[in-house]
Amino acid sequence: MKNQHTIEIPANVFRAIFFSQPLNMRYLNEFFSVPEFIYASLTTDDVKFLEQKGKDGVSQVLSRLERSMMSSIQVVDLTASETTLPSPFDTWAQAIFATEIDASLAVHVGLSGTYNLLVKSNRTTVQNVNQVQLLVNSNILLRSPFQFYWEEKYSIAYKGQDVSYALYTASAEGGGKGSARLLIKIWTHTELLIDDASKYIDVTPFLKGVNI
User: Fold this and answer.
1) What is the mean pLDDT of the chain?
2) Which residues contact 138 (CB under 8 A, 6 or more apart)?
3) Phi/psi zone of residue 106: left (φ > 0), alpha (ψ -120 to 50 degrees), beta?
4) How many helices and strands in the chain, by DSSP H and E?
5) In angstroms, rounded to a whole number, what is the distance separating the alpha carbons of residues 140 and 156?
6) CA angle in degrees (0–180, nearest 5) for 100-105-110
7) What is the C-alpha to C-alpha distance for residues 101 and 138, in angstroms, rounded to an integer?
8) Beta-carbon count within 10 A of 52 CB
9) Which of 34, 85, 92, 167 could form a disulfide with 23 if both were Cys (CB 3.0 to 4.6 A apart)?
10) Do 8 and 2 form a contact (C-beta atoms < 8 A)?
11) Segment 60-73 mean pLDDT
12) Which of helix, strand or coil describes residue 53?
């Protein structure tokens, strides 16, 4: 097997990545299916390292890859601040809403244009659809109660050429199991903006039944 860089990936390296799951990135987790991201990004040196270290080395490779991606990105975390997102992102956040369709959560984010969609839910379930043409009134169905583990955390990312957006659930600060909040991430060429969606919208529909 070869990755996108035509690097040969031995079976033992593939297994090391597979058995290291669940894998999470510190900042960009919502925008990537992490095992596939690692596999696609491996260099010859990474392969040699993982052949020696096995799954114990996977987190080190992942950390290095993310540090490289974040080297020119400033992280701006507004979740504990009264400061809101800069324009026009504040206007975008205010336009987010959710409805219920046949017991599933229909998420409306008011984006138009071509995006790659990445949905994470149900533990390690990942759905990735590329080159989706969105309209302002498009919606994505998530969190059907007919699915196993539907009450666990989830995220949806809209990956654009210049700006990418994500909504995701996270544990409330200082809260125990059963407490959750809905957060926003906006990823540009220079910044990663993070904020609490409750500053802009009613997050109740998004958190209904969530238990993390």
Assistant:
1) 94
2) 108, 111, 112
3) beta
4) 6, 10
5) 9
6) 95
7) 13
8) 9
9) 34
10) yes
11) 97
12) helix
Location of structure tokens 């149900």:
122
Using the structure block, give the residue that is written with the tokens 């026009």.
88
The 10 Å Cβ neighbour count of residue 97 is 15
Could you tell me how far CA 88 lies from the centroid of its own chain?
Answer: 21
What is the pLDDT, as a whole number, of residue 175?
Answer: 58
> Taking CA 164 as the corner, what is the angle to CA 172 and CA 184, rounded to the nearest 5 degrees?
15
CA dihedral sign, ordered 211, 172, 64, 29:
positive
Measured in Å, how far apart are the chain's first and last C-alpha atoms? 37
Q: What percent of the chain has pLDDT over 70?
A: 98
From the list 145, 97, 100, the residue with the least C-alpha distance to 122 is 145
Counting Cα atoms < 13 Å in the Cβ hemisphere of 163 gives 10
Report yes or no: 7 and 42 within 8 Å, Cβ to Cβ. yes
For residues 175-199, average pLDDT: 91
Q: Does the N-terminal peptide bond of residue 22 adopt cis geometry, omega within 30 degrees of 0?
A: yes
pLDDT tens for each residue of 89-128: 999 999 999 999 999 999 999 999 999 999 998 888 899 9
